[in-house]
Amino acid sequence: MAGVSFLCVAAAALLLLGTGGAIPPPEEAARMARFVLHNCDWGALATLSAQEGLRGQPFANVFSLSDGPPGPLGGSGVPYLYLTDMEISVQDLEINSNASLTVSLAQTPYCKKHRYDPQNPLCAHIIFCGSIVKVNDSEAGLAKKALFSRHPEMESWPKDHNWFFAKFNITNIWVLDYFGGLKIVTPEEYYSVKP
């Protein structure tokens, strides 16, 4: 019976996502992490709140993100964000830059096509831990191309909000893409593979 379920998962791994790439098999956790991030346009960023009444409490918020232009070869693996100090989570990050970021294939056609609930491990999701840092001038062009290629509306956001490009500096990665619990991937493993 276990062999049959593995064959079903392997067959599902060969199916294409709506974005044009084949989902990696469960034994390739680092590739899965890169794949999921590259195929997601947003994620849930969790910070420790600095807001009155919530100080020190976990606080999750949705942010648009991109690791590069769409397509199978467009991803760098670096989650870029377009932020303003006016945003409540960014105010949290000014006090403590540590955060976690969760991205899930639930936002792609893949899980709906297979009728996977977002909480089903086969609807892969990745949890990144690390910190948010502003990008330097040499990286700003890359971040801009990555974000504006997926989120063209960003170019017209109010200039007086003092938007800036930032990236999620990854220190830990957990992959949940199959039954049996989380898989740990190091940043070195993650950046050494293609999605």
From TrEMBL:
This is CREG1 protein. The keyword Disulfide bond does not apply. GO terms for cellular component: cytoplasm; endomembrane system; extracellular space. It holds the Pfam family CREG_beta-barrel. It comes from Pluvianellus socialis (Magellanic plover). Its main location: secreted. It is found in: Secreted. Residues 1-22 form the signal peptide. It comes from the Eukaryota. Belongs to the CREG family. Residues 24-192 form the CREG-like beta-barrel domain. InterPro entries: CREG, CREG_beta-barrel, Split_barrel_FMN-bd. Keywords: Glycoprotein, Secreted, Signal. PANTHER family: CREG1 PROTEIN, PROTEIN CREG1.
